[in-house]
Every structure is written in C-alpha cells, then in structure tokens.
C-alpha cells in the first residue's frame, strides 16, 4: 500500500480492509506528501542559514539583522498572501493536474534563484518570488484530496500529505549543514531542484481525476464517491465567497493560527541558537525531535475524527472535538518562558515545542478539511486559497512583530504567549460563524 510505506505514516493510518477497495487514492496522497516535502525544504533553508547570513560579507554572510530578517520573511508572506488572491481560483479553473505542475515549477525555480543572492535586498526579491510560487501548494493539494477522498477520509489524507511539511524541515536540517560545509551557503539553496523536476514528471504521468483515471478500479471509484452527490455547475465566482459566513469560519482561524507555524518554522532555529547557544550542527537534534513529533501530530490529528465517529459522534462533531483537543494541547507552550538556559531547560523546551507543533499539525489537518466539509468540490480550491491568504497575512504580521520584538528586547516571551492562546479563540470563532460546520448551498 502506497499510503502505508512512508515511515512517517503509522500502520493504523491505512487499515488492511482498504486493500480490497484499492489504493490509487493513497498513491495520489503520496505524491501530495512529496510535493509538500519539497515545499517545506525550500522554506526551511533560510531559517537554518539565518546565523550564517547574519555575518558580515567579509565573513561570508550578507549582514542580515533580526529586523531585516523579519522584513524578508514578511515579504515572503506578503507575496504568498497576494498569490492566494488567484492561486485557488487558478487551480479551480485550469484543473489540479496542470495547475499543480505550473506552481511547482515557479516555486522551485524561485527557490534555486536564492543561490544568486549577495545582499539583503536581493534576498528579499528572491523570497518574494518564492512566496508567489508557493502560494498554490495547499489550494492544489486540498482540491486533489476533495477529488480523490470521501469526506470521512479527508482529514487523514490531509494529515498524511501535510506530514510532508515536517519531513521537509527534517531533510533540510540534515542536508543544509552538509551542503553549506562542502560548497558554501549559496549551494544549499539548490538542493531541491532535482526533487522538483522528478515530481513534476511523475505528477504529469500519474494524476487524473477519478472519473478520468485509466487504472482506477470501479470499487474504489464507488468508495471515493460514496458521499451524497453534489450539485454541479461552473466554478463559483471567487468574490462571491467573501459574503458567506462559512468562508470566514475557515479563514479567520487560518489568520490566527497559521502564523504560529510560520513562527516555529522561521524562528525556532534562532531561538535554540540564541537561548541555548547551539551551532548550525547543534541545531539538528532539537529541530529533528520537534518536527518528528509534529509529523506524528499531523497523522494522528487527522485520524482522530475517525476514532470519534466510531464511538458515535457525527462527522461534524468528531471534527470539532479533534480541533478542541489539539487547541488545548497547545496551551502549555507558554511555560517555555520560565525555563533556564541549561541542558534541562533545553530538553524541557524541546518537549513543550514538540507537543505544541504536534498539536498545531493535528489542528491544521482538521481545519483544512473543514473547507471541503462545508463547501462543494467546485469551490474548495478557491475557499482554501482565501484561507491560506488570510493565514499568510497573519504570517506577515507575526514576521514584522517577531523581528521588531527580538531586535529591541531579544525576548521570545510575548510570542510564546500568543502561540499558546490563539487556537481556543479560533475554535470559538469557527463555532460561532458556522455552527456544526453547516454545509453551504451555492446558488450559481
């Protein structure tokens, strides 16, 4: 089974009975996993190289500061947000197969373009281009999940492919120090080029809609389409979605909680380096532990609703219960502010951040799936794009805030308090705007 061969995926993720149904949908999920892995490898390279780039040019860096680093990350998230204005609609209009290939090509070329950077200004330009390219990854992946999975399996499928975010960080953590040591930091930005080209070819050869796939068995096709049929028609006008409460029940929680993941992604290496005086090589173990834990959270967080359904909860209540559990598990991270800068404190910080990152990924797996729970497939790409856009706007704000706070105080305290509190607030907003994840009936 493709869905059960990756070491990131526990055996419970793909029950044996599914072998009788067929596994093509899990092959698709594995390709989404690979794409997300490449996506996060590209993102994490800069975070790992931050201490190196903060050196003067005489020492091989580009003179990056906390403030300018925050600005560079903010530029990425700003253009990532702007890209969302059209990314989801683009995917809905031209289709998942071609659309995903185009966005992968754009972001991969932009990522490799970082190797030409020799100043903070050039780094900001390269990062802005990367933001535009990467803006289409999650709208395309979420639409593919909506096309290939029944509702009850979607959060698990999302959890599996979203596990690529953790694996991408892990691979970057392993490869970047080696590439930097052997060839210099410019070469570290080139490490994903081969993977990107291989993925684009594989996607072109393997991906079709279920109704158009030449090797999909009829029993698996029936399994994929077991939910009540949806009304079909042309794509929903993108601007019309902004007037629907369910859009904001999805988008506002994305605005509040996505920035926390961006904060972890871009500032955890700096946090461990500053707080516990770890070198580029020494950062490997803490980052590996945190992101391996978050990989587990991504998978089991996605699997939680199925567990709750088996004990009698409806699909909607199961989804919300899983989100509540994840939101509560994030709260203890604020106690990281009271740890000492010794070995015990380091491992306590690793434990707290591992729990928080795992809970975030479980939350994210379920929050992403609420878009396909509430909206028909024809609108999922656009709604996901809107939500990812608002999340990127939040990422822009947290980047500017983090850079400014660290420049003037060198303290992470306020940032970790924010990280601990926004998930429960987000869940309350979701429940108030869309009680029971009520489905949208679009009038075209």
What this model shows, in words?
It is built from 16 helices and no strands. α3 packs antiparallel against α4, α3 runs antiparallel to α15 and α13 runs antiparallel to α14.
Which characteristics define this entry?
mainly alpha, Growth Hormone, Chain: A, 444 residues, 0% strand, disordered N terminus, 16 helices
Sequence-ordered SSE layout with sheet pairings:
Elements: H1 18-21, H2 24-53, H3 66-94, H4 96-113, H5 120-134, H6 137-148, H7 151-183, H8 185-188, H9 193-206, H10 218-224, H11 245-276, H12 284-310, H13 315-330, H14 343-374, H15 377-409, H16 413-433
N/C terminus separation: 40 Å
* Mean pLDDT over all positions: 84
Radius of gyration: 21 Å
Reading off the top of the CATH hierarchy, the class is best stated as Mainly Alpha
Specify the number of helices: 16
Helix content: over 70%
**Backbone structural class:** mainly alpha
H and E string: HHHHHHHHHHHHHHHH
Low-confidence stretches: 1-19
Specify the CATH architecture: Up-down Bundle
> How much of the residues is beta strand, in percent?
under 5%
